[in-house]
Amino acid sequence: MAKDFLLDDQNDLLIKDGDFVVGESLTQEVSIILRLNQGELKSDPLLGANLIRLINSAVSEDQLQTIIKMHLQRDGKDYEDIKKYIQLNRNLN
């Protein structure tokens, strides 16, 4: 599993006893990728699923899943290994 600095609920570095907290970060990394819009990450401007823009759009569940898979794969993550952690709640109008 991936280990990295952990973030709190406001996406600030988590600090305990004056030190950065390090721990399992896979779900945190996936969450960040899914919330990113393309162009927001300077080191990889194509990474970012644009999910906020897509949530209330006419994108089908299959298309949405394909977009998620593509962006996770771009960051070296296997969707099949982590799909149980991903829950999409869409309001389809």
Task: Outline the fold blueprint.
Layout: E1 3-5, E2 15-16, E3 19-20, E4 22-24, H1 26-35, H2 51-54, H3 61-74, H4 79-82
Antiparallel strand pairs: 1-4, 2-3
Secondary-structure-derived class: alpha+beta
What is the straight-line distance between the termini?
Answer: 38 Å
Total count of helical runs of at least 4 residues: 4
The amount of helix comes to 25-40%
- What order do the helices and strands follow? EEEEHHHH
Largest sheet, spatial ordering of strands: 1-4
What is Rg?
15 Å
Characterize the biggest β-sheet.
Answer: 2 strands, antiparallel
Beta fraction: 5-15%
Q: Tally the beta strands.
A: 4
Can you give the mean pLDDT? Answer: 86
Low-confidence blocks of residues: none
Shape, per Cα inertia axes:
globular
Structural notes for this entry:
The chain has 93 residues and is an alpha+beta fold. Helix content is 34%, strand content 11%. It has 4 helices and 4 strands. The chain has helices at residues 26-35, 51-54, 61-74, 79-82; strands at residues 3-5, 15-16, 19-20, 22-24. The strands form 2 sheets. The protein has a two-stranded antiparallel ribbon. Strands 2-3 form a two-stranded antiparallel ribbon. A hairpin with a 2-residue loop joins β2 (15-16) and β3 (19-20). The longest helix is centred in the C-terminal third of the chain and has 14 residues, at 61-74.
